[in-house]
């Protein structure tokens, strides 16, 4: 099966994984005015009716389906955790990055825009890119990468720093010559989709399986890159050694001619 077929085949399993990670159904955020949509901070933080109140404490995350113009939708993750730096201890993960051209809506605290204060767990560059043949709709799967990482690291005081390091790595393009392939996040999402497709049923062990795949993917890339760097260094050293050898032979010949 190609990527699109695997993606379509996994839709129900993806919903089951999301439920394992969040314990809740997704919520909806209306951003039908697009980038001009303004949402008050209290819509998130307000007592029993705010979006954050829907988060189960021991899970710490919930998925928000953002309704965008043209009857389209985009998935983001709301996360609540004491190791976040914002005053209200919550943040947004968005696979599209926090470049102002990609943010789906603006958050206002009274008259002041505070959007970026709540994008602490989102890097600048988009993870969710590439052509449809490579990325048939991996926004949700990339969200699962974040949620699994959070699930495994949320009690560590430095988890945000470690996540952003991983985020920045995943934002790199797989191929410098073929932008259609998208980012490393897209390629990792595909590997996760392959694994999910191989499962007859979904249970709690899938979280460990995905986390192992995340760590394996990053290790594989850096091992390959380090080996490449070592090879380049060896070639440079070999060239220097060759030049040094030629220079040495030339000097000997000059000395011999002088002595004669």
What does this structure look like?
The chain has 260 residues and is α/β, with parallel strands linked by helices. The chain has one domain (3-242). The chain is built from 7 helices and 7 strands; from the N terminus they run H-H-E-E-H-E-E-E-E-E-H-H-H-H. The chain has helices at residues 3-9, 11-22, 42-45, 139-153, 159-170, 184-198, 205-259, and strands at residues 27-30, 38-40, 61-68, 72-80, 90-93, 106-109, 112-113. The strands form 2 sheets. It has a 4-stranded mixed β-sheet with strand order 1-3-4-5, covered by helices on one side. It has a 3-stranded mixed β-sheet with strand order 2-6-7. Strand 3 (61-68) and strand 4 form a beta hairpin. The model is unreliable at 228-232 and 254-260 (pLDDT under 50).
């Amino acid at each position: 099966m190609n990527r699109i077929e695997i993606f379509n085949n996994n839709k129900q399993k993806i919903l089951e994984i999301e439920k394992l990670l969040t314990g809740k159904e997704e919520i909806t955020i209306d951003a039908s005015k697009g980038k001009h949509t303004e949402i008050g901070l209290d819509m998130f933080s307000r007592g029993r009716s705010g979006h954050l109140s829907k988060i189960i404490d021991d899970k710490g995350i919930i998925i928000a389906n953002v309704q965008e113009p043209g009857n389209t939708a985009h998935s983001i993750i709301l996360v609540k955790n004491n190791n976040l730096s914002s005053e209200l201890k919550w943040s947004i993960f968005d696979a599209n990055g926090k470049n102002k051209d990609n943010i789906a809506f603006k958050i206002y605290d009274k008259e002041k825009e505070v959007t970026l204060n709540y994008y602490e767990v989102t890097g600048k560059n988009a993870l969710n890119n590439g052509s449809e043949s490579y990325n048939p709709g991996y926004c949700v799967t990339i969200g699962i990468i974040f949620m699994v990482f959070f699930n495994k690291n949320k009690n560590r005081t430095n988890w945000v720093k470690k996540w952003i390091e991983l985020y920045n790595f995943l934002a790199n393009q797989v191929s410098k010559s073929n932008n259609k392939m998208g980012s490393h996040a897209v390629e990792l999402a595909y590997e996760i989709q392959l694994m999910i497709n191989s499962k007859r049923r979904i249970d709690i062990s899938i979280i460990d399986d995905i986390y192992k795949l995340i760590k394996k993917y990053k290790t594989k890339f850096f091992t390959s890159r380090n080996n490449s760097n070592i090879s380049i260094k060896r070639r440079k050293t070999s060239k220097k050694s060759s030049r040094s050898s030629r220079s040495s032979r030339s000097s000997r010949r000059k000395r011999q001619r002088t002595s004669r």
